[in-house]
Every structure is written in structure tokens, then in C-alpha cells.
Input
Amino acid sequence: MKVLCLHGKGTSGAIFRSQISTFRSKLPNDIQFDFIDGPFKSDPAAGIDIFYSPPYYSFWENDSVESVRASYNWLTEHIAKNGPYDLALMFSQGCVLGSSALLFHQEETPHLPPPPHPAGGGGVFICGGASLSVLEEMGFHVSAEARDRDLASRAALAQQAGSSALLAQGADRWTGLQTVNGGLSEDEVRKEITSPYRINIPTVHIYGSKDPRWAAGVHLSGICEPTKRRTYDHGGGHEIPRTAAVSNSIAELFKWAAAQSESGIQ
Output
């Protein structure tokens, strides 16, 4: 099995490898992970430079639809040269690229062989959402509430993930976004985006209830086929916790997605 790994903004393939090392140690040794770097040099993500040295990368320099499409074309070329892949594993900005690529392929170029999207069989999304602008271009209705929540969550993430908050409070800095989420359930949040169709492959959605971007992860789960998705709230912030319980749960979800891919379920 070959897995395409898409990192978060302001990190790198090497950093992503480190971030998932705990749960990856619980997976079969014969899985091949391809940790790629985004095409653009970047400033470090908030707080990341405390633990990891440069270089840092991003998949685009701005998040316009045009930039996302350009990165999709770049990713397609990478897959043509280095794929095919059975599964995609994505974190934060990597989830934005992966979900956009899946939508572009599914709705615009489904006839092209091999599938020029990040996952021939399935996708595992960790702490990331979809591009709201891409969704609107693709015919989804994004409510004003979803837009407002997205903007507020980005500001809160920058504040809570920053070096000063990390050094002062550590893991206690993750307070989530309760005031903006308003105590809504996952089902209520999913209703904020109306889907004319859904990403129609097996998907896993992992997010944390203390992550300011929690709603973005829930929104992304809502645009994926409900009968083919699994969700898991790891209870933390914008991170991949390394506790035994969380690592075991993520590993089991990954194995489920891998099994769906190997069985050819689409």
C-alpha cells in the first residue's frame, strides 16, 4: 500500500512524518508513506519553529480558487510521476488541497485514467477543512454562519497556536472556539453547508473539540458520503495527540480506510 502524505501550512513533509510517528508505529511495516513538500517556501506555522528547524513549505501563497487549482495541477503532475496511491493522509492545509482535488476530479475530470486525485481509494483528514471558496465555485451553498465561523477560527488558531501561548500555557492554551461554535452539535454544524453532491470515496475525519478549527473539520465531514465516512474527536487542539489511547484510535481508523481502499470500495 502506498500513501500520499500532505502536510500543514508552514511545516514540511519531514515535520509531518514526525507529527504522525506515534500512531504510524502501530501500523503494518509494509505501508509506504510518501511525505512530499509543498511547492512554496513559507514562514513557519504558529509555534512550529520552537520544535522544528526550517525549511517550511506551503501548498500555495494565497488561498484563492486560482491558487488552489494551480496546486491541484502541480499535485496531479506529482501523482502521475510518483503514483498511483491507495490512500491520502492529510493535515490542516493538506486537507484543503486534498478535498479540493477530490472535488475537481470527481466533478470535472472523472474520465481521466489514472485518477489524478490524492486518493485512488480513500482519504484520512486530520484537523483540516475544505476551501469555502472552492466549495462555492463547485456549487455548494456556504451559509453566512459558516463564513463567520471560518474567519473567527483562523484568528483564534493563530493566537492559541503561537509561540507565546505555547510557552506560557502549553497544552492548556487550547480553548477551542466555544463562543463562536455556540454549543452546536456536529450535525448542526454540518447543516451550515448545503451539498448538491458529496465526495464519494471512503473517508476518515479526525478533529479535536478544543481546536479553533473544529467546525472546519466537521464541515468537511459533511460534504463526504455519510455511508462511507468515519469520524473521531481526539479531544485536543490543532494537533495530533501522541497519547496511547488517541494513537490507537487513529491507527484503527487508518486501518479501516486502508481496508476500504484494498477492497476497492468506491
Notes: Residues 114-119 have pLDDT under 50 and may be disordered.
